[in-house]
């Protein structure tokens, strides 16, 4: 009878050591990102301490610098995914290249064009006279920063892209109510923000769906796709160039130069014309020899997505860095001068905290939300991702023209939803698509194949409903959740700060 082979004691010990080493490496990888983030916060605290040595209120400034750094990290982890997620999901760029491009352009936008002058009461949410006491104001701003950062951190963990602007607005509102009562809040402004919950995603989704419908009608379902692409792709790229020029003129360069809507649109038209003239011969060369199929068309839309990701990141850095450093700058000003001002300029070191924090947060924690926006809500290819990017720029321009407050996060994610829901409708209902499918499969009887199994019908939905409900729920409760948390933190801070 053959004997059962048994491991020797030495082999068992070596196996245990190997398992322990593998577990240590795995745990080390999980702790690397939080460790680096903590190191960044410590560095920001030390930098702040070096700037405020001997200044009145120095301890408060140092503490606020650490909180502001934490807020910036969370903005990078959550909000930047909307800029590069569609391009990554469409395979137009890798995750690594997307993170590098976004980090560089986010920082450039924040440092070059960001932080013009930030209202200390964050966009007029609270009446400055209601929190004129410096101690009250400082506690309110710190509570707003901590609460909004904690909420964004939770949303990132839940893989829900939320508006960082709405988070900080909710935090300021909650702290203001706790400090001075309900009457201190500018309720018409809050009403406009509530309206943006609906307007932003709807506008983004409708425009993205309309652009996708145009591409399908005039390019995808044409008999000669390549000829149609040669005609329309340069026009679409020109529209994107014009839209982004106007977008950056109005939203991304406000610190450098003030440009009204009419001038921005004029610049956009000029940029679009130049882009069409430059891109048309390039598209002709790229399309030469391509097969007459959809896969060939996707190659023509890849390069514009890289540029759109960079430009969206630049504009985002220019605008949303204020969400991280606006309250921080207000605290610094109040602590140094001992008075509350309606408007303050942001010191360079404070701006650097926001710019670097957003970029580092993106690199360390951003891939989770990048994959969510680009891959897990609905399936994107370069053509669909182009629709999302174009919608983000056009929607901001339209909202600015109408005087509507909108969220870039809600616009971008709403555009992804719009593309997915439009594809669901188009797949089941479009007469043009049905005719195209029947022409390629003559044996069909002029109708789509019915789906009799309900479970199969659910699986064939092109937008994942679980992500849709999670994200929409997070949008709805962002302001009240941040407000409630901020109100509670305000009372704690008042006890600590005296």
From TrEMBL:
Q: Where is the composition biased (Basic residues)?
A: 442-451
KW Membrane (keyword) present:
yes
Q: What InterPro entries does the annotation carry?
A: Phos_transporter (IPR001204)
List where the protein spans the membrane.
31-52, 58-81, 93-115, 135-156, 168-187, 193-215, 227-249, 261-279, 300-318, 346-365, 385-404, 468-493
Q: Where in the cell is it found?
A: Membrane
Could you list this entry's UniProt keywords, alphabetically sorted: Membrane, Phosphate transport, Transmembrane, Transmembrane helix, Transport
Region span, Disordered: 438-458
Membrane topology according to the record: Multi-pass membrane protein
GO BP field:
phosphate ion transmembrane transport
Where mainly located? membrane
Q: Give me the Gene Ontology terms describing cellular component.
A: membrane
| UniProt key word Nuclease | no
GO terms, molecular function: phosphate transmembrane transporter activity
Family membership: Belongs to the inorganic phosphate transporter (PiT) (TC 2.A.20) family.
PANTHER family found in the cross-reference section: PHOSPHATE TRANSPORTER
Quote the protein name from its UniProt record: Phosphate transporter
């Amino acid at each position: 009878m053959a004997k059962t082979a048994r491991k020797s004691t030495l082999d068992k010990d070596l196996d245990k050591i190997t398992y322990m080493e593998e577990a240590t490496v795995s745990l080390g990888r999980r702790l690397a990102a939080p460790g680096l983030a903590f190191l960044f916060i410590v560095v920001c605290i030390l930098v702040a301490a070096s700037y405020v040595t001997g200044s009145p209120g120095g301890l408060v400034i140092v503490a606020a610098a650490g909180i502001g750094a934490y807020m910036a990290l969370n903005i990078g982890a959550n909000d930047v995914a909307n800029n590069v997620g569609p391009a990554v999901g469409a395979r137009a760029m890798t995750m690594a290249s997307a993170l590098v491009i976004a980090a560089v352009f986010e920082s450039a936008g924040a440092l070059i064009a960001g932080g013009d002058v930030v209202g200390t009461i964050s966009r007029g949410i609270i009446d400055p006279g209601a929190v004129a006491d410096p101690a009250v104001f400082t506690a309110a701003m710190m509570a707003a920063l901590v609460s909004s950062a904690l909420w964004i951190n939770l949303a990132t963990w839940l893989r829900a892209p939320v508006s960082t602007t709405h988070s900080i607005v909710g935090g300021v509102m909650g702290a203001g109510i706790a400090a001075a009562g309900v009457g201190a809040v500018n309720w018409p402004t809050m009403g406009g923000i509530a309206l943006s919950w609906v307007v932003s995603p709807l506008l983004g989704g409708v425009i993205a769906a309309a652009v996708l419908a145009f591409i399908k009608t005039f390019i995808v379902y044409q008999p000669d796709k390549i000829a149609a692409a040669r005609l329309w792709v340069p026009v679409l790229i020109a529209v994107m160039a014009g839209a982004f020029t106007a977008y950056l003129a109005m939203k991304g360069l406000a610190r450098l130069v003030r440009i009204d809507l009419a001038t921005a649109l004029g610049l956009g038209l000029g940029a679009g014309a130049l882009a069409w003239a430059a891109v048309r011969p390039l598209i002709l060369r790229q399309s030469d020899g391509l097969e007459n199929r959809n896969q060939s068309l996707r190659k023509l839309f890849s390069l514009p997505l890289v540029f759109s990701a960079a430009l969206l990141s630049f504009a985002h850095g220019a605008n949303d860095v204020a969400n991280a450093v606006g309250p921080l700058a207000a605290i610094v000003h109040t602590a140094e001068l001992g008075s509350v001002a309606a408007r303050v300029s942001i010191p360079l070191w404070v701006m650097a905290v926001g710019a670097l924090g957003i970029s580092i947060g993106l690199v360390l924690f951003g891939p989770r939300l990048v994959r969510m926006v680009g891959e897990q809500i609905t399936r994107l290819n370069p053509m669909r991702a182009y629709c999302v990017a174009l919608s983000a720029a056009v929607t901001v321009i339209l909202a600015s023209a109408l005087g509507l407050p909108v969220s870039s996060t809600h616009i971008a994610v709403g555009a992804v939803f719009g593309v997915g829901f439009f594809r669901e409708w188009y797949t089941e209902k479009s007469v043009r698509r049905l005719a195209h499918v029947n022409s390629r499969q003559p044996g069909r009887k002029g109708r789509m194949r019915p789906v009799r199994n309900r479970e199969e019908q659910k699986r064939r939905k092109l937008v994942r409903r679980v992500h849709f409900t999670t994200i929409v729920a997070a949008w709805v409760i962002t302001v009240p959740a941040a407000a409630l948390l901020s109100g509670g933190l305000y009372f704690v801070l008042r006890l600590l700060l005296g």
